[in-house]
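Why do we care about 3D structure at all? Because function follows from shape, and shape follows, mostly, from sequence. That is the central idea of this module. The next example makes it concrete: a single protein chain, its amino acid sequence, and then its structure expressed as tokens.
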Amino acid sequence: MSRSRRAGLIGSVVLVALLAGALAGAAPGDTGQVDLGRIAGEEARVVEMILPDRDALDRLVATGVDLEHGAHLLENGAVAVRAVVTPNEIASLEALGFSVGTTVSSADDFSAALAEREATIAAHVAENEAYFEAAYDDGSTAPDVSDVKIVRADYYTSFGEAFLSVEAKWASGQTMTNSLQVQRDSGPGTEFGSGGVQNISRFVDAGVYLYHRGTSSVSTRPDRIRITSPGGDVAIAKVKDWLPTDTEDTWKGDFYQEGFVTSYLTPTELYDRISALAEEYPDLAELVQLPFETNGYRRKAQALLDPPPPRLRIDAPSSAAGSYGFAQASYGPAVSGAGVSGSLVLVNDGGALPTEGCSPLVGFPAGAIAIIDRGTCSFVQKTLNAQAAGAAAVVIANNVPGTPTAPGGSAPTATISTVMISQADGAVAKAGLPATGTLIPGGAAPSSARVGVDSVAWGHEGGNDLTIRAVDPGVSDSLLSVGVSGDDITVGLATDASGALASTAAQVVAAINADPAASSLVFAYTYRGNAGSGVVAATDRIGLDDFLSAPDTVSRDPHPVYALRIGKHRDGSKPGVLAYAQEHAREWVPPLVTIETAERLLRNYAAHGHTKQLLNNLDIWIAPSINPDGGHYSFYDFSSQRKNMTRHCPVTGSYDANARTAWGVDNNRNYDTYSLFDGYDGASTSCTSEVYAGPSELSEPESKNLDWLASQADIKFSMNLHSSGNYFMWSPGSYALPGRTTAPRPTLGEESFFWGASSRILTAIKRYRGLSVTPARTGPIADVLYSAAGNSGDMLWYKHDIYAWNFEVGTSFQPPFEGTPTGGSARRESMEFANGLVELMRVAYDFDKDKQRPTSVMRIRPSSTAGKVLVTFETTEPAAVFYTLDGTTPTLASNLYASAGVREAGETLTVDVGTTIHWFSVDAAGNVERNYVPDGRGRNFNRGVASLSG
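And the structure:
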């Protein structure tokens, strides 16, 4: 404690003791409690009184006289005080024996001070009015009355092309749909419009107007822009640079190693990769198994008792004998009735690609079924050429792998049926020619007549070996029966007196589930809650299938989830950084970003000083696949899979195999902060929705693992890696309806830190090949994308106090690995976003080492209202500002300087001229301006007066 501060405290203690003693000695009987006789209308004055001793002070206090807050002990033991008294009170005090001294200040002094104050304010007002006239002589409207405000004006380049992004708010934007025109200059000192114009459009989300926005390419960098609203108000703003235009990674040096990912990696391969790194670098990394295993890449085997599907049946003795499913064309007649039979003939059109049927056919036998390869001409052209040659039907063999699609087009003159079979089936069929065959119509039974069956065992544990069929006994008055032979189940359907089938779906379900042998193998149910009153048709023997095609190297057991922990000190003593990917299974690039980052950190440690600095001072957690089950399913079965593989649908709903690609929980909607279950928007209760939130918060092991990760060590920063769209986002990530009420917004200081750190990270991304994540795609999730109730970023920020970001990498979920230099490329996207992820580590390091105290200034602008000024604060770094307007000492409980609105900078305070303002700032690392202690006793805060004259 400084000496002067200590002396001040001692003086205060003495004064308090004197007054306390005076009050303690005041007894009513000492003076008889006389009325000093203050008369209304008399003017008061401040007088000095010298009392001989402390006893006299006690008697004076007991009179109830109005004493100033002060008593000065003189060397001779006397006490000097000041009293506020009227002439009649002076007479009363003198009558009691007190001596009243000189007048210190009188009513005239009070009046003079008041007059001076009023004159000062008037002078300020006059100055402000003059300043107001000059401040907006550029034609802009005063900001406190204008109906249009420019929020952002950002100039940037992406892949060498220049753009200007503008965001503005218009007071009538909620109800009016007008676009706003932006006039650009062409550099400092040039006229508005000389750089061209661009329009920005109204952005409305959930029925709420947020702002106008738009981006346009520009040939020159504008210095200023101007917007004139439909109401005639004018806003002018300086253009700022968004991300540097340089492309040099100076901190990496000449020997920095990168480029470690060479292909897409399945979850199994991702875990093998980080396991190998942990084994190779035991002093710097360890493999951590997270506590919750997933359901596993496994399913029950399933089947639907349906009539055979539409198919091409090829007859023996062809090597291709068998049945092949087809997709019916959208034009021409459908295959119907008994089907279409005939010889199967591969066409020849006499051209360079003769089997594509793009020209009139050569030597085709009339009445045969034409087999035609898909290729360079339209489906309709192939059909009409075959029809002209006398073909009975057309079978198109696909030229790309996968399930055949329905040939499309318009062919009013087509009189023959056209179907498509898969590429693989087409190859088999063509290899088996010559042959005969039949196109057989088919299709699903009506919902009321469908029966679903699931194996009791997992598919890979025996369920896939089961078969089932429903047979027509071919006699009248037959009873419904169920028989089991090994892995084969046969349902003998009942018939009536005429021999017609009579078993309903409900009866078949009951019979299967009641049979001990059958029910030990399968569980039967009617289709999606139907009462099952329809009559079941006879079927072919149907094999139950789990429809999972990954190789045996992919485990079917409950799957452990792994993270790689990197750092020289992995004991919780260092600040933590968490990076995690593949919450959504189909997003194949984000895991590569985590692997590339892990490889860079470990392989550059020995020879690269900056990397060594990071690993010596941070505790880094990298989880490349949060959702391994869904990831494997996406790689091997259904590339568009978003969710995990857990089936929560009830047996009365989408429980059957036809819904298998719609099952699962969206992991990024299953967390427990501002979720669907809290009333927030952007998730669904439907078990087949792509944003299904699950049956409850944190119901899924994948989500529980991330919650556990966030609680480990001392994690301060995180990055959730997704794709696609090249977004860069943070909280709030959700809002409630109606009204679009978001989760609590970060403070202005926190928001400024998000923007500042984001600029560093996005600059690092840009330096790889020139890609700019745009300002319009940077910001809170709810503002630039949509509401995502129960997302992980919100959980990390609000629940775990972690600065949490979200990448949306690239322009598609599964771009070509190499791609093009400026287009979709998994390798290039992995490299550039790994740049950004490493920069996040650098942000974390700088944050931990930050001891620099912020500084702040108060800016004052003229107001359009007489006697008022506009006040804003600026800080040298992202920081919170606490202020008072009543002259009191600012503390952490004082007013917090806030944002002016969504995506805006600090608010503008409108205050009276002459207002005394006290404030201080605190940065994100907790450093307080001037080393001020905001406990209400410190005095070294900032002081200012709200006046343009200073």
